[in-house]
């Protein structure tokens, strides 16, 4: 039996790459216009990884992928580990390296779930992914454990990452059995007001202009301001993550159960997710105890996945 790989949560805080040079031209997270429920869901999932991940549903062009990449770059200084639609089970969980086998060498190659430890695992168009692969990912997300038994190997890992899946409902949905296993869900809609659309356009064009300026002169006050805003948000989220288990949620548990009953939720996952999300929000606010306001906010923004 191979030894269990250590948990990244015990090894260190998320690895940071200094992003002052903006090596990847992704709109800074702090400059994303609107989409407050989406940004809140990503933050809560980071603070409480055991929530079960975030499912983002929306039409093309609503900024789903941009927001996920911007969040990953803000928190980890790098783009998320991305799972392709055609990913095989070997590529997801690990297996013998095919290239090495062609050289008559039996060498193990870790999969994307291990590569994503301590980072964001991003699955675009998750509704088009094979159900079996989705099941594996959700199992690991909820348990933090990955056990691989194949090719004569038995490997176990402690795996913790922030799972984010995006989908366009016009291209089909997830089966209810898989849908129910996501902790948080956000329905992203296109900005319709003239003011909001104008602000989005101005921000994107400004970013592109400033990106070119950095390539030419090496400096941009606009991007330096963005990096400072991102630094402050990153520090706040890291602090909230450390504070999460210190927040007292006991006084809110009865309300969580009552809400689950009101929504006619099957099983007991709904109240657990609601309690965890409210606790994460209280930690983000620096509170020692979950308040009714935390619960109201989660329910109002509809980031908690309570379904019949």
The CATH superfamily label of the largest domain reads: P-loop containing nucleotide triphosphate hydrolases
CATH topology of the largest domain: Rossmann fold
The structural domain count equals 2
Q: Structural class given helices, strands, pairing?
A: alpha/beta
What does this protein look like?
The structure is a single chain. It is built from 13 helices and 9 strands. With 308 residues, the protein is α/β, with parallel strands linked by helices. The protein has 2 domains: 8-197, P-loop containing nucleotide triphosphate hydrolases (Rossmann fold), CATH 3.40.50; 243-301, no CATH class. It has a 5-stranded parallel beta sheet, with helices on both faces. It has a two-stranded antiparallel sheet with strand order 3-4. It is globular, with a radius of gyration of 20 Å. The chain starts with 7 loop residues before the first helix and ends in a 7-residue tail after the last helix.
């Amino acid at each position: 039996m191979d030894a269990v790989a250590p948990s990244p949560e015990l090894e260190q805080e998320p690895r940071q790459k200094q992003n002052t040079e903006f090596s990847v031209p992704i709109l800074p997270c702090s400059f994303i216009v609107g989409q407050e429920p989406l940004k809140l869901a990503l933050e809560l999932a980071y603070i409480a990884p055991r929530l079960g991940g975030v499912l983002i549903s929306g039409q093309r062009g609503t900024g789903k992928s941009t927001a996920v990449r911007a969040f990953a770059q803000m928190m980890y200084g790098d783009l998320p580990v991305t799972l392709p639609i055609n990913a095989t089970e070997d590529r997801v969980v690990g297996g013998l390296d095919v290239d090495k086998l062609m050289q008559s060498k039996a060498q193990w190659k870790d999969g994307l779930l291990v590569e994503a430890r301590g980072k964001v695992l991003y699955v675009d168009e998750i509704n088009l992914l094979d159900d079996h692969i989705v099941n594996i990912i959700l199992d690991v997300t909820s348990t933090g454990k990955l056990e691989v038994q194949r090719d004569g190997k038995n490997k176990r890992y402690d795996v913790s990452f922030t799972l984010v899946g995006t989908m366009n409902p016009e291209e089909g949905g997830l089966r209810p059995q898989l849908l129910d296993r996501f902790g948080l869900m956000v329905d992203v809609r296109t900005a319709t007001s003239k003011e909001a659309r104008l602000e989005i356009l101005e921000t994107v064009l400004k970013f592109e202009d400033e990106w070119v300026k950095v390539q030419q002169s090496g400096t941009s006050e606009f991007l330096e301001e963005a990096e400072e805003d991102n630094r402050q948000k990153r520090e706040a989220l890291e602090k909230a993550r450390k504070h999460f288990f210190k927040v007292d949620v006991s006084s809110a548990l009865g309300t969580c159960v009552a809400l689950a009953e009101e929504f006619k939720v099957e099983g007991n996952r709904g109240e657990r997710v609601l309690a965890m999300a409210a606790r994460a929000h209280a930690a983000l606010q620096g509170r020692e105890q979950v308040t009714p306001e935390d619960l109201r906010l989660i329910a109002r923004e509809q980031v908690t996945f309570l379904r019949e």
